[in-house]
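Q&A log
Question type: sequence-to-structure
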Amino acid sequence: MGGVNTEVSTDQEAGVVDVDDQSAAAGTDPESGFDAELHERLASGVEVARAAVEEFAGAGVGEHLGSGVEAAFTTTHRFGADLSGYRGWYWACVLALVPGGELTVDEIALLPGDEALIAPEWVPWDQRVRAGDLGAGDLLPPGDDDERLVPGHTLTGDDALDELAGPIGLGREQHLSREGRALAAERWSAVRGPDAEIARSAKYHCGSCGFLVPVAGSLSTMFGVCANEFSADGQVVHLQYGCGAHSAVEKPKDTSPAVPEAFDDAAVDVVVLPQQLKAAAQARAEAEANSDRSAGADSEQPANAEQPDDKSTDQDSDSAP
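Response status: OK
Response body:
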């Protein structure tokens, strides 16, 4: 398979037009000579295309998938590729035909389909590091031509940075350039800027929030650091960014009208008042006291009735001879 062309051509990337739409794509313009008869001959050349692909590939040529017109006087026939490791690929055979001529094979290629597994676009080695890739112990020195940095002895246009750099040879060796600040502002605005969804729905912005920690330098006119632990704590935010945890947010007030409590007019609720309970308890206590006194009186009456009989008996015994 070393001689197979597996590169996607410009025409192939543009897409193959179905046979039914060939007139709109290449056109059967009589002036160009590409008429319906030529197209029909090209579309019917399936066996010619298959034979050419089988001769070229040797094996792995599947069923016919269809044909389409990419340019005048040509038709591309597609066949499934039954090859190990090439799932979703197909064979493409371009047939050409001129008025008065015979079908000729113009090109044969192995191309990826919609479901084919293909290699991602090449990215140079020095551009493969992405934000968040740097780990503990990793080293990532800036390039010699890094536009984000300028030598410490040059003026940056930011008075605060220039003051921080100090006298020539005594301060930082490098500091942020104008381009470096612009790139930082672009990144910060993309994450927590005025166009963020949460910022568009917020009533207040970070520029007036008590949780905003200002930064120094020219970037202070656009950014600050959030110090609210319930929001973007410790993150750089745009002054026009906002959220629902702004220091000026107040508790919502209940403005709904009072709803009267519903009750059943036909129902009767028996409610015992405290004074009624107290009166009932006092009545029970008095009743129990009266009952106890009555019981005591009844128990003492028979004993008092027997005493006169004893005395009379004694008197009778004394008067007897």
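Response note: DSSP finds eight helices and ten strands in the chain.
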